[in-house]
Specification:
Blueprint lengths: L4 E6 L6 H18 L5 E7 L5 E2 L5 E2 L3 E2 L8 E4 L10 H10 L5 E4 L3 H7 L7 E2 L6 H7 L4 E2 L5 E4 L2 E4 L4 H14 L1 H11 L14 H4 L6 H12 L7 H8 L3 H12 L3 H19 L4 H7 L5 H12 L3 H9 L5
Parallel strand pairs: 1-2, 1-6, 2-5, 6-7, 7-11, 8-9
Antiparallel strand pairs: 3-4, 10-11
């Protein structure tokens, strides 16, 4: 007999709607795919059971009041502007009732609510990059990791901003129901299955600034599309129609990183995606990413990630720990 899991979503004024609708769509889609609509039984609740207004102006009508809700299997705490000055009664409820859930999940700044209730003390956690400093400053007992898109620590899972809640929900569905169900949901939602939790919140392109001048922006785009090309400073400078010295100075001034560092990040990111999403061999991937040889890619991975490509692939495809 299939296991039924209840999911309780905490709602409050100024909640970010995408923080909970994304995961809810994942759980709902998984239930439909499993053929049993009760695979995930989802309920929403606010403090008094009354309507709440999201940060985008939508009005939501919860199913019940938090005090009337039974302890769920999964308690989902979204983020939003309402986490900045939360209702003390909400923190009290979380402190008292959240430990009764088998699994605690926060999305975005929802981690601030869990931390305020003491539920993240002694645990590793993440949140939206914009509030990581605040989480670390206000809650020194929490081990804040600002880089991953989600973090699992025991039965507590925290995630970064908005869409990372979908990534985390897909990982939970994979754990509960298997990879095929999670993959079916991901395909339906037209998202990837699955970005690993340790993937950085920023891609190489987002981590660097976009150059102001069009020739330099074009070079950035060309690097991204041709990681296996000649990406020497001389070659890139010629593409931008600048001298190598002028190009190197201008590129760093406008993007915040040297051309070499930018190329390094793009190649590592491309190699990681191929290791995660394809069965291509290490030698083939090293050529596709411009390393030339597996040994060159191995050295780059050890420097950037602390593990060789084969070990990275093994960890990524290992079963999700329960």
């Amino acid at each position: 007999m299939a296991q039924h899991r209840s999911v309780l979503v905490v709602l409050f004024d100024d909640v970010q709607s995408l923080d909970f609708t994304g995961p809810v769509e994942v759980f709902t889609g998984a239930a439909k795919s499993s053929g049993d609509p009760d695979t995930y039984r989802i309920r929403t609740a606010s403090l008094d059971g009354g309507p709440v207004r999201t940060s985008s102006g939508l009005t939501l009508v919860p199913d019940c009041a938090l005090h009337d809700a039974a302890d769920p299997h999964t308690l989902l705490v979204p983020g939003g502007q309402g986490t900045r000055t939360p209702d003390p009664q909400l923190i009290d409820w979380l402190r008292e009732r959240a430990p009764g859930a088998e699994r605690l999940v926060s999305v975005c700044s929802g981690a601030l609510l869990l931390a305020a209730a003491g539920l993240l003390d002694g645990r590793r956690a993440t949140t939206h990059w914009n509030v990581c400093d605040r989480l670390a400053r206000d809650h020194p007992a929490v081990e804040v990791d600002p880089d991953p898109i989600f973090v699992r620590d025991g039965n507590v899972a925290t995630s970064a901003g908005v869409t990372s809640g979908i990534d985390l929900a897909l990982a939970l569905v994979e754990e509960d129901l298997g990879r095929e169900t999670a993959l079916t949901v991901a395909r339906h939602l037209v998202v990837f299955l699955r970005r690993p939790g340790n993937q950085a919140q920023f891609s190489a392109q987002l981590a660097a600034q976009t150059a102001q001048r069009e020739p330099l922006r074009d070079v950035q785009q060309w690097i991204t599309e041709h990681p296996d090309g000649d990406l020497s400073v001389e070659s890139l400078a010629a593409r931008a129609r600048l001298s190598p010295r002028h190009f190197a100075r201008a590129f760093q001034a406008e993007t915040g990183v040297t051309p070499g560092r930018y190329v390094e990040r793009i190649r590592i990111e491309h190699a990681r995606r191929l290791l995660e999403d394809t069965s291509d061999g290490i030698e083939e991937i090293s050529r596709a990413c411009g390393y030339g040889t597996p040994e060159a890619m191995r050295r780059a991975f050890l420097k950037a990630l602390g593990s060789p490509p084969a070990e990275y692939r093994r960890r990524f495809h290992a079963p999700v720990p329960r």
